[in-house]
Amino acid sequence: MTPSHSSRSQDPASQSQDPGPSSAPRLGAATDAFFAQPGSPPVEWHVLEGVTPYEEALAAMEARVGAIADGRASEAVLLLEHPPLYTAGTGARDGDLLDRRFPVFAAGRGGQYTYHGPGQRVAYVLLDLKRRRQDVRAFVAALEAWIIATLWEFHVAGERREDRVGVWVRRPERPVAPDGATAEDKIAAIGIRVRRWVTFHGISLNVDPDLTHFSGIVPCGIRGHGVTSLADLGILASMPEVDGLLRRNFESVFGMTVDAPSVR
């Protein structure tokens, strides 16, 4: 049995985002700050305990995005972990699902296949771009900058790539690629959707997941590169420690946050 969910909408302002080739260099997008207009309320910061079913998280996001767009709620970030599962973005290719070993969900976000599971910090980022910048490429760049700044707290040098959304880590201790390039692994994925200029879905940062679980897919449709985690790099960090650093660096890029009650 394969549960599925689609968040597609007939609203013309609803769109999935997987920034790809463009006439303008992707890495040219500004990443230093993505603040809201003066006077905007702080972003609510939710941390959900345990593992959250994917359907439950989607329902929470859908409800909150509608409330934000209608002016009935403030922006929010939801931090959580999922049980093992695969999600398929709007660009997912059938051939990239190699082993249906976990439930597969049609996510409605941009991107292709990705894995979520325990030990991976998922952050769903629900921001109103009308209060910030109506520039999706700059928003994605800001998400990457947020992750990179957080990784640097652990002395991990995360990097962006022109042709690959997400954050990458060089692995010079491994054999070089067939083209002679230094081997590198993905440590964080990004997939977003925008509806009525409110963002949802977001990022996933590998803290200490079971990396063998990624073998059932071609992660993000990218062949020739692997995946890594903080634990795989020899860094033993607790989820609360990671959360604290994510919050501090989020505020540096996106602005102030405030504690919020659980969405459960």
UniProtKB/TrEMBL annotation:
<keyword id="KW-0808">Transferase</keyword>
<dbReference type="Pfam" id="PF21948">
    <property type="entry name" value="LplA-B_cat"/>
</dbReference>
<feature type="active site" description="Acyl-thioester intermediate">
    <location>
        <position position="220"/>
    </location>
</feature>
<protein>
    <recommendedName>
        <fullName>Octanoyltransferase</fullName>
        <ecNumber>2.3.1.181</ecNumber>
    </recommendedName>
</protein>
<comment type="similarity">
    <text>Belongs to the LipB family.</text>
</comment>
<feature type="binding site">
    <location>
        <begin position="109"/>
        <end position="116"/>
    </location>
    <ligand>
        <name>substrate</name>
    </ligand>
</feature>
<dbReference type="InterPro" id="IPR045864">
    <property type="entry name" value="aa-tRNA-synth_II/BPL/LPL"/>
</dbReference>
<feature type="site" description="Lowers pKa of active site Cys">
    <location>
        <position position="186"/>
    </location>
</feature>
<feature type="domain" description="BPL/LPL catalytic">
    <location>
        <begin position="71"/>
        <end position="258"/>
    </location>
</feature>
<dbReference type="GO" id="GO:0009249">
    <property type="term" value="P:protein lipoylation"/>
</dbReference>
<dbReference type="GO" id="GO:0005737">
    <property type="term" value="C:cytoplasm"/>
</dbReference>
<feature type="binding site">
    <location>
        <begin position="189"/>
        <end position="191"/>
    </location>
    <ligand>
        <name>substrate</name>
    </ligand>
</feature>
<comment type="pathway">
    <text>Protein modification; protein lipoylation via endogenous pathway; protein N(6)-(lipoyl)lysine from octanoyl-[acyl-carrier-protein]: step 1/2.</text>
</comment>
<dbReference type="InterPro" id="IPR000544">
    <property type="entry name" value="Octanoyltransferase"/>
</dbReference>
<dbReference type="InterPro" id="IPR020605">
    <property type="entry name" value="Octanoyltransferase_CS"/>
</dbReference>
<keyword id="KW-0963">Cytoplasm</keyword>
<feature type="compositionally biased region" description="Polar residues">
    <location>
        <begin position="1"/>
        <end position="20"/>
    </location>
</feature>
<keyword id="KW-0012">Acyltransferase</keyword>
<dbReference type="InterPro" id="IPR004143">
    <property type="entry name" value="BPL_LPL_catalytic"/>
</dbReference>
<feature type="region of interest" description="Disordered">
    <location>
        <begin position="1"/>
        <end position="28"/>
    </location>
</feature>
<comment type="function">
    <text>Catalyzes the transfer of endogenously produced octanoic acid from octanoyl-acyl-carrier-protein onto the lipoyl domains of lipoate-dependent enzymes. Lipoyl-ACP can also act as a substrate although octanoyl-ACP is likely to be the physiological substrate.</text>
</comment>
<dbReference type="GO" id="GO:0033819">
    <property type="term" value="F:lipoyl(octanoyl) transferase activity"/>
</dbReference>
<feature type="binding site">
    <location>
        <begin position="202"/>
        <end position="204"/>
    </location>
    <ligand>
        <name>substrate</name>
    </ligand>
</feature>
